[in-house]
Every structure is written in structure tokens, then in C-alpha cells.
Amino acid sequence: MRPNIRTLGALKETGYRPRSVREEIRENLIAELRNGAALFPEIVGYDKTVVPQIVNALLSRHDILLLGLRGQAKTRLARSLVRFLDEWTPVVAGSSLNEDPLRPSTGPIQRRIEEMGDELPVDWLHREERYQEKLATPDVSMADLIGDIDPIRASRERLDLSDERVIHFGLIPRTNRGVFCLNELPDLQPRIQVGMLNILEERDVQIRGFPIRLRLDLLLVFTANPEDYTNRGNIITPMKDRIASQVLTHYPETLGDAMAITLQEAELARSVEVRVPRFMREIVEEIAIQARKSEHVDQASGVSARLPISAIEILASNVERRRVQTGDRSPVPRLCDLFAVLPAVTGKLELVYEGAQEGPTIVATRLIGQAIKTVFLRYFPPVHQERKGGGAVEPLYEKIQSWFTSGKSVTVTDHLPADQERAALGAIPGLRELADKYLSTGSEDEASAVMEMVLEGMHQHSVLAREGIHGSARYGDMLTRMMQDL
User: Fold this and answer.
1) Distance between CA atoms of 405 and 400, rounded to whole angstroms?
2) Taking Cα atoms as reference points, which of 87, 118, 92 lies closest to residue 103?
3) How many angstroms separate the Cα of 232 from the Cα of each of 156, 227, 228?
């Protein structure tokens, strides 16, 4: 609730004491640590790695550089720091620099306090208003960040150009008594980085050659991608030296963390019910995991956590489209729906030369296949058994293979309702029994996806052939397909 205190005199009566932003954050953080509260409840997977480093930096009153690849929650971490600020903070009413009534920063406000005394009007600033961020781009100027002189106002009011009243302050001074985040620091031109050196250490500002001593009270947070050090720009050495703490971020270290992030961030509400089972969510997550290991993907650029988030949203939308168009009653996606997520994958990958030669669609399709194979082996026994002189198909899969060897084939498509596809797959001897034995979900709606995963797993082990395009796949005998190709 906003405090009902409107004058400097009333503020003094409350016993209010000025604190720097760093002290304020430090004291509130210590209180949170004592209470055992979750410090960053929206950040998953950093509790034992990144969060302790950030806590130590804040307790040390340090500026912070968050260094990591794309999609590692760097900006979200920076925005989360405002929760350690007081909910409401008193400021001098009308001050463009959010000045503390008991510790003013500029001459004009000091003169106002001398003139008005305890009748000086006081306003209150919510902590959400004390955070600002700027994306560093090559066209960012000192005027944007620090400020510039307004010669028209100087002339109109007959003021000297060194007078604080003729300065149009930029983003950083206007975030005084708050947290300022500069994203993608290497993209900032070196001359602008040089201009920020005093902000980092001495906290004084020079505008157009006029020395202006401002007691800026800020916590500065920067984000950077290691790739930027060589590709687009770099952080100048004095700048890196003055940023006291560098915190390295990372991608989720476990599948569970990755799935939790995707489920937290993805928007899965649809006009009809859509239910994505766990094994399908694992496959979606494995696409990103496989991409982070692929020799065709530029690992220096990274694979964003936004890939599985976008992919699972498209997967849900493909189910919604089918249900709306065909009246399908099943809310569960099938494996044939997975290839609808290609637009979410191809746009998130930076390919190396070999990958670019093959094309993003081929690389993305291969990644989806590898993801299915990995999850398949997580639930089902290996398709091949080891024997001297070469591997042979496990007896569990022989009955299924024999059906295809006899010349039969089956087509799965995201256009068909689930009951029709389930009937077609159920006609393959041994397929439903194998699916129920190793991945029984107790749901008829999920049975089609599980049976499809068995067929795709056999295809990924070169036991069955598959021809697929636009959400449809036809499975058949591998030998027959090879002879046709010849």
C-alpha cells in the first residue's frame, strides 16, 4: 500500500533513514535468506550454480555482468533483482532523478529543500518503477545513456551551459536509486563504453566537456553473449575490469529442469482441450538437447531455451487445428504432429557450413528423429541384440517386422482422427502389446502416439523404412524400399 506521507517533515517523523541502493538490496536479501524464501522463484535450474554467485555479488555490493549464450534467462535474472528493493521509496516530488529527500543529488533540489524546509512535497516510487533497461546497439549515444545539454533552455532562462538545470538527463541518471540493466554490452561502441567508465567507479558524469558531479546511486547489471566478443564487438578491458562480478549462466543441466522451464513459459491454453503427455514433452525437450550436441549446429551461438517453448506451443496448436477441422475427440498429440514444429526449430538454429549445405529443414528433421530415438530407448528395449558377426532384431520386434516384410505398409497422418489411426496401427500384430508393456499410460488417447513411437524407433534403427511429408508418414519394409531405390 502506498504510504500516506506527503511532506519532508512527516517523513522525518517516521524515522526514515537514507540508504544506498546496494545497502537496501543487501539488507532485504539478508532478510530473505534468513526466512528461507525462494530468491528467484521464476528461475529454474540455477539454485546451486548461478543463484549463489548472484547472491554473493549483491552481498558484496557489486555491479554484475551476466555472461551466457542466448536463451539462458539473463534478462529475466536482471529484472528479478527489483524484488530485493523496498516496495515504496520516498522521492522529492518533481525530481527527474528520483532524489532522496534527505540526501539530494543536485543543486536545484538542495535549494528547494533550503527554501521549503519541512514543507517540501514528497512522493513515493514503487520498486517496479526503479528498474530500467536498454538494449545496446551500435547507434546508442552518450545522450541516450547519460544525457545532453539543452541550449534552447539555457538561452531562454539565461543559464550557464554548466548549470545542472539545462541538462536533459539520459536513462542512467533517470534510474538513480534503482537498477539499470544494459543488454548485449559488446554491441555498444567502444567510445560509449569508455564514456561509462566513470559511471561504474567514480559515479561522476561529464556532458559535452562540462564536469558535473552527480552522486548517482545505482546498481548496474550488464548482459553479454560470449560469441559477441569476436563476432560483433567486444567489451573493452577497462570496462570488464570495473564490473566487479562476472556470473556465468548455462542451459538446463537436467531434463527435468528443462521440462519445467518449458512448461512454465509455454502458453498451452487452446480453444479445445490439449493434453501433452510426459513422453511427448521429453521428445520436444530432446530436440534442443540434440541440437546442442549436433556437429551441424554452431555451438558457439547456442540453442535457446525458446526452441522447446515455441515447439511445444506449435505442437499444441497442431492438435487444436485437427480437432477443430475434423472433430477429433482426442486431446493428445501424436508423433506425426511433431514434424509440424519444424518452423520453431529451423528459426532457432545457427548452422555451421556443413549444416548450411544440407539445409535447415533437413538438419531440423534429423534432430527430431534423434530426439525420438533417444526417448524411445529410454522406455523400450534396444531394437537390435548383439551377436557375433553382427546385430539381429530382438524377438520383441520380429512380429512387427514380419508384418511389414510381407509387403504391407501403414500410413499415419495428422489429418486423421485418433480412433481411425489407432485402429490402423492396432492391426499390426504385436504392436499394441509391445506399446502397452513398456509405456502403458492407461489412456486410449495416448496409445496412438506410443505405437507411432515404436514404429519410428524401429525406423531410426534402420529396421523399417519411412516416407514422410507434411505431417504424414508411410512405414514399410526397409529391404523393399532399398530395392525400389535401386
Assistant:
1) 9
2) 92
3) 43, 8, 5
pTM of the model: 0.88
- Which long-range contacts (C-beta less than 8 Å, at least 24 apart) are formed by 189-195? 189/138, 189/140, 189/233, 190/233, 190/234, 190/236, 192/140, 192/141, 192/142, 192/145, 193/235, 193/236, 193/239, 194/236, 194/238, 195/142, 195/145, 195/146
Helix (H, G, I), strand (E, B) or coil at 368: helix
Rounded Cα distance between 337 and 352, Å, is 28
Q: Which residue has the cell 563476432?
A: 231
For residues 156 and 148, what is the distance between their CA atoms, to the nearest angstrom?
Answer: 17
Query: What pLDDT digit, counting tens, does each position of 123-155 carry?
Result: 999 999 999 999 998 889 888 888 877 766 666
- Residue type (1 letter), 255: L
Q: Please name which of 307, 302, 314, 309 lies closest in space to residue 261, comparing C-alpha atoms.
A: 309
Superfamily name with CATH number, domain 8-248:
P-loop containing nucleotide triphosphate hydrolases (3.40.50.300)
CA 36 vs CA 28, 29, 39, 40, 57: distances in Å:
13, 11, 8, 12, 19
Domains in the chain: boundaries:
8-248, 255-485
**Can you tell me the distance from the alpha carbon of 357 to that of 5, in angstroms, rounded to the nearest whole number?**
67
pLDDT tens per residue, range 11-28: 999 999 999 999 999 999
Residue 172 phi/psi, 5° resolution?
Answer: -65, -50
Choose among 241, 236, 239, 201: nearest CA to 218. Answer: 201
Pairing of strands 472-477, 210-212: unpaired
